[in-house]
Amino acid sequence: MTRNAVEFRNASAKSAVDEKRQGLLTHAIGNYLGKRDTGRKRFRDWEGARKQAEAIKNEALENLDKYLPQFIEKVKERGGTIFCAEDEESARTYITNLALDRGVKSVVKSKSMTTEEIHLNGALEKKGIKVLETDLGEFIVQLAGETPYHIVFPAVHMSKGEVSDLFHQKLGSKETSDIEGLTMIAREHLRKEYCSADMGISGANFAVAETGMISITENEGNARLTMALPRIHVAVVGIEKILPRMADLSFFLQVLPTMGTGQWMSCYNTLVGGARGKNEADGPGEFHVVLLDNGRSKILADAESRETLRCIRCGGCLNVCPVYQTVGGHSYGTVYPGPIGAVLTPLLRGLKEWGHLSYASSLCEACTEICPVKIGLHKRLLANRRDYAGKYGPMAEKLGFKAFAFAARRPFLWRLAGALAAVGQFFYPLVAWFPGNPAKGWTKGRMLPRIVWKSFRNMWIGRGGEIS
Amino acid sequence: MNNGVEALLERVRSALGSGARPEPAERYYRNLMPPAGGKGEDRLELFARNVTALSGVFHHAGSFEEAVERLKKMATELKWKKVACHGTGTAFKAAQALGLDVLNTDGGYEKLALEKCDAGITECDALVAQTGSVLVTAQSAGGRGLSILPPHHVVLADNKQLVADLSEAFIVLEKKYGTNYPSSLSFITGPSRTADIEQQLVLGAHGPKKLTILMY
Amino acid sequence: MKITLFIPCFVERVAPRTGMAMAEVLERLGHEVVYPEAQTCCGQPAYNSGYWPEARSVAEHFLDVFSGAETVVAPSGSCTAMVRSGFAELFRGTEREQEAAALGERTHEFSDFLVNRLKVTDVGARFPGRVAFHDGCHSLRELGVQAPPRELLARVKQLELVELPGVPRCCGFGGTFSVKHPDISIAMGRAKCAAIVATGADFVISNDPSCLMQVRGIIEKKGLKIRARHLAEVLAAQ
Fold first, then answer.
1. How many domains does chain A have?
2. Domain extent listing, chain B
3. Quick one: closest CA in A to B182, which residue?
4. Which one, of C235, C34, C32, lies nearest residue C115 by Cα?
5. CATH, range B38-215
6. Structural domain boundaries enclosing A48
7. What residues of C are in contact with residue A411 (Cβ under 8 Å)?
8. Could you tell me the pTM of the whole model?
9. How does the average pLDDT of chain B come out, rounded?
């Protein structure tokens, strides 16, 4: 097992029995589910909407070689700067060098999973630049020294008591169990920071090719402030975020929040296409878009896994996944948790190191059922397993399945094996200690099923049933 | 400096190959989305209902003068001392009528000064019935910060600006700005909010806690 | 009608009563039932674990055994789903692609077969008890079988059906997942059992024997006062 796989096993074992964490998560998701269902019903035809969303995202991806250049041209036309980062290091380097060159001392950030993906904060902080997360959930996990627990609700795993303790410790604020009070503490703390920060860094939910504008969906207003007040704005955008037309947003800006938070529309949906325009009262003096590849073009090249790039990061799959709800966002050990994370991480970061995530699923298909852009998530998991097993399957397992196939093609041998197992099960305790014994996992919390001596075939023949 | 553009485009081109591309997708979403309230009274009623559901305040005044009277009442009730506005049009006129300290964002402003204003008064490009949204741009609403930094955002809208759905709002944008969009635009749907702590809804997370739309 | 029995590999050796019950119900309805004794497994364990060449090899044997069958019925949603979707993946682009597709069309999960093919909902069963029904995920989402088990249970005399609260949740079995990620699997299974206990049901019924194996394993370990039965056993009871 790779180190990541061992860490996942240990982390998930711990989380699987952490009832407190699971309770908080279950409560949050329960809250969300009702709203989501109401939201879906508002659409005149939700299933039709899914097909439409799938079709438009497919058009964007299948024609990325047309829409990306269009987007880039439009950004440049308006005076923005484009940098295309092949990997996370080049993205980090570009942004860090830019910040140093422009004398940036402090950065405010709005919520961006891509900036988590490239591990940006640490790189900036190493150069002595202060980085402040402004989304409330991100602000909380940043103070706690943690990573986000969920791609939409970063601090869903924390209780108000824990947040109060955290604020008290790190900000010196008075302890309180009043959630509005806690929110206001964060608000007050951040007001001055927006006004004094040199650089604002955001992600983007969509990047519109037609106009070269990025679109950001949020509820708090911290992204708008991040893009309004500092003198430089940098947006880190995955190349798969491209949408062909402005008008497409009239649709996606309602689909995304329906799935993401159960709202019909998020509070602020903001498009930015450049630095402060002529005759505009404010805005950054510079606008930079870092288009992030980091493995996405590789996925694009594989016609089978290309559909994974349709993901609009709504978090809908996390919210229906029984595995995610059992182990929580931190167990995955990587930026993207849940079903999309289990599919995407091996593809982005390497099958050998991360393939185990694709096996951490019972394949219940709840994710495929819910995905608004109709990614066949469980099929992607199976495909990852197929690719993993061939190359990296443990020898014992490979041999085991070869033996399985050998016996399964030979009915007499198969029946013999069954009969031997029926006898051998009584000697199970003798072999239970055997390293790699698969049944050991079973017996951790379950009684082993009894293998009966009289098989179905025996019973059938016994009562004179017709054989073919 | 090598900006990586060519290399990226090369990777993308090679990923997609030279085969035939599917036709652009047919766009039929307008009929899939929630109903947009038709015309006139229905549209108005839907807009009002949506704004109220989000804890925004909507007031339909008979005239601009009546809207200003309403604003004066609000300023007194809420004990405003200083407000911010933009330009020389309705937002400016309304702000002036309050007899308070006024910060006009035109030509630039001190961020900390804007932060201290009790309210930001702006015009808008459209009101959207389907979602209860207000469409503002850096040009129609005095920049990016005016409608987000002060704790109370007041919008002055002409009743002709009420459109049925988001699709129509995007058409309004296209008609008004052509190919020359402002550097920033935003659909504002209710006061700022968060539910990041135990899923409990709190208004005024970072943006305005109060949103008032005065239509005349 | 001549119905060919598809007896999942672990039903064969762990829960043969399930297969017998299914055969009894079909016979009671007046059909000829035949059991191809050369059947072994549909290959799902290998397929789910990513060993597709091995899975294909086992699936080929399955095709050989069942290709002559007019109608195939299995007391398992996951095994049926394997023959439909899994085989489609395994045989795509091979010379047996059409044959596999054709067999998939002729293979049915038991409750789906009774209600949607035979158009039968009352099989003359009697099973006193308070019963919670657990949907196997493959039955529910891969095959779209949600109503048939409930329509059948509604006609069983003296049976009181209670629904598990909320949306249908996976029991945590997931094939080799149950032993590769046992902590997660057991936690999910325990959550499922807790939900069942909370309904006050005496029995948990499912149309998927693998789910029953999981749930039963936990019930026995924890000494819970619920009994697990397959839908076929309930329908065969008189």
1. 2
2. 38-215
3. A277
4. C235
5. 3.40.50.10420
6. 43-294
7. 37-40
8. 0.96
9. 95
